[in-house]
Every structure is written in structure tokens, then in C-alpha cells.
Design goal:
Distance between the termini: 25 Å
Bound molecules: flavin-adenine dinucleotide, iron/sulfur cluster
Radius of gyration: 18 Å
Helix content: 25-40%
Largest sheet: 8 strands, mixed
Number of strands: 13
Oligomer: single chain
Number of helices: 9
Strand content: 15-25%
Length: 285
């Protein structure tokens, strides 16, 4: 099927059956569950993750154990240059079955690299799974820090998690207190400008893509896009690693909302692209 969500063969609503993964992950723990399943069953021998360093700053790493994957779960709404560690993973760690997760722009970069592997010739055959995450926008790290410190009045070193949903950016602290909410309209000026010319919401070129939109709280929408993605997800379900429920193709918060948000992003950003071209400005995408 092809539509505003790109090509996919099926959609499922799913979540991990592992309580620890569910507790630590952002949504239904699909990425973490897939990575751990892959590592523990010989489908993957290493995975690229976005961990954090001091100040909740995203940093790409290669994880090879359950503990390393769990330590990096959760969404960071700032750029984590996950592509930058792919070559090291193959050349220095000698990984042959690498899992990769990225935002739509990173998945596109990965697929381009696989098509035209100039500097990555010995790398591309070693990518065994590409998981894409949905993405409306990203924030430069310093912009996110400003939002958290000046709007939420939270020291960036005390942050344990951030989440965007229901029209708000929620900031969770390490002390377990209630999250502080920043209305999304306050965050708009802080968005990464290149995100305003981005035409992919659902990681259309991944093996499978996942995000929270389209599913009940704590569950994830999964768009399965090709045979590799289907085989991987089927194996996880057969092994009892994922539970699933039928997607809601009718209700307002189900798949129609996912389609609406994707269409809205493409329509708005297509106008911005036109505007930038008319003004003679670069369109970095
Ligand atoms: P987890 O099991 O928690 O695993 C998440 C994985 O993603 C981890 O391996 C982690 O290391 C990696 N990761 C975290 N941050 C980044 C990053 N910045 N770059 C690359 N990899 C990363 N979902 C929606 O439904 N709608 C949205 O509009 C939306 N916008 C997003 C914007 C951004 C910038 C990002 C990074 C994610 C966004 N998501 C959005 C995706 C959503 O927040 C979850 O990441 C997704 O649902 C996966 O959840 P999970 O429980 O399966 O992930
Ligand atoms: Fe990348 Fe597009 Fe997301 Fe911006 S909106 S981080 S360009 S995928």
C-alpha cells in the first residue's frame, strides 16, 4: 500500500511483553524489544543506539548487550548522529549483523549510503535491520536545554526523560516527581529549521517504522514495510516478545490521526520548500 505513510505491507499495534522494557521505553518498547530479541537470537550482533551523556545530551553508541540497549532506550528530541558510528561498528568492532535506528532523515541517509556506498563499501552488506521512528521535528541540543532550563525551570542534569504528546512537551526528573509540561506552541521557535523542509513523517524507507501516534497510550503503531521487516516482527510475535491488537482504522486517535499528521507535515513543509526556492534560499534536504 502507498499513501501519505509511504509504502507498507501491513500495520500492527504492538507493545513489548517484557515489563522492564515497557517501563523504561518511550512507548511500546518496540525498538528496544527488537534490538534485544535480535541480539539474543543471533539475528543481530550489535545495534546503534542514542544514549545520553552528561546534561541529557544524545550520543550515538554501539550496544551489544541487553543492559547497553536498555540504558539507551527512550526518545531524545535532539539530534543524535547515529550514522556516525556505523562505519566504526563494522570496521573496529567487526560487526556483521548491525541493527540501526534513526529518524526519517537518518533512515533516508542510510538507504542512500546503501545505494551509493562510496565510503561505505564494506559496510552496507552488514546492515541487518533498519528501524525507523516517526518524527515531526527535532530541536538543537542547546535549544532543548534552554526550553528545559528556562521554561520548565529544571536543571538539564536532573532530566531523565522527555516526551511530546497531547500538545505538550513533558519533562521528567530523576527524583520521580510529576513531569513539568511546556505547551507545544512555546517550543515551535526552538525547532531545528531544516525540519521545516522535511517531507517524511513515518520513516518511509525503513524495514519497519514505529511511533506512538495511532495507538493507545503505552502501545506503538508499527508500519511493516518489506520482507525483512515482516520476518523480524513475525519472529518476535511467534517468540512471545510482542503482544498485538488490531489497529483502529476508524477512530479519531487511530490510523486516521497518523495519516492526518503525516499529510499535514508534508503539506506545510512543501509550502516552505516552495517559499525557500522562491527566495533563493537553500533547501537542505
Ligand atoms: P524505545 O524502545 O524507547 O527505543 C527508542 C530507540 O530510539 C532507542 O534505541 C534510542 O537509543 C533511539 N533514539 C532515541 N532518540 C533518538 C534520536 N534522537 N535519534 C535516533 N535514535 C534515537 N513518534 C510519534 O508517534 N510522533 C512524533 O511526532 C514523533 N516525533 C519524534 C521526534 C524525534 C526527534 C524522535 C527521536 C522521536 C519521535 N517519535 C515520534 C518517536 C517516539 O518518540 C519513539 O521514539 C518511538 O515511538 C519508539 O518508541 P519505543 O518505545 O519503541 O522506543
Ligand atoms: Fe530529521 Fe525530518 Fe525529523 Fe527533522 S523532522 S529530525 S529532518 S526526520
Amino acid at each position: 500500500m502507498t499513501n501519505t505513510l509511504g509504502e507498507y505491507t501491513s500495520i500492527i499495534v504492538a507493545r513489548s511483553t517484557d515489563k522492564e522494557i515497557l517501563e523504561k521505553s518511550q512507548d511500546g518498547g518496540i525498538v528496544t524489544a527488537a534490538y534485544i530479541y535480535g541480539l539474543e537470537n543471533g539475528l543481530l550482533d550489535g545495534v546503534v543506539v542514542a544514549d545520553t551523556e552528561k546534561g541529557f545530551k544524545p550520543v550515538p553508541k554501539i550496544a551489544r548487550t541487553r543492559a547497553e540497549v536498555l540504558s539507551a532506550c527512550g526518545t531524545k528530541y535532539s539530534l543524535s548522529p547515529n550514522m556516525s558510528v556505523v562505519k566504526d561498528a563494522v570496521k573496529e568492532y567487526a560487526l556483521e549483523k548491525l541493527g540501526f535506528v534513526g529518524t526519517p532523515c537518518q533512515v533516508i541517509a542510510m538507504k542512500k549510503m546503501m545505494q551509493y556506498p562510496v565510503a561505505f563499501r564494506q559496510t552496507t552488506g552488514n546492515i541487518s535491520l533498519i528501524v525507523g521512528i516517526f518524527c515531526m521535528e527535532n530541536f538543537p541540543y542547546n535549544a532543548m536545554k534552554t526550553l528545559i532550563e528556562q521554561y520548565a525551570r529544571v536543571n538539564i542534569n536532573d532530566v531523565v526523560k522527555t516526551d511530546i504528546g497531547k500538545g505538550k512537551l513533558f519533562v521528567y526528573k530523576k527524583d520521580g516527581s510529576d513531569p513539568i509540561a511546556i505547551p507545544i506552541k512555546e517550543t515551535i521557535p526552538f525547532e531545528q529549521k531544516s525540519c521545516h523542509v522535511c517531507m517524511d513523517y513515518t520513516s518511509e524507507f525503513a524495514d519497519f517504522s514505529t511511533g506512538s501516534v495511532g495507538s493507545p497510550d503505552g502501545w506503538s503503531t508499527v508500519l511493516i514495510r518489506n520482507k525483512r521487516g515482516k520476518d523480524f516482527i513475525d519472529k518476535m510475535i511467534a517468540a512471545g516478545k510482542l503482544e498485538t491488537q488490531a489497529p483502529d482504522f476508524e477512530g479519531k486517535i487511530g490510523i486516521p490521526l497518523l495519516e492526518k499528521l503525516s499529510t499535514d507535515k508534508k503539506t506545510k513543509n512543501a509550502k516552505e520548500i516552495e517559499h525557500r526556492i522562491e527566495m533563493g534560499l537553500p533547501v537542505p534536504y
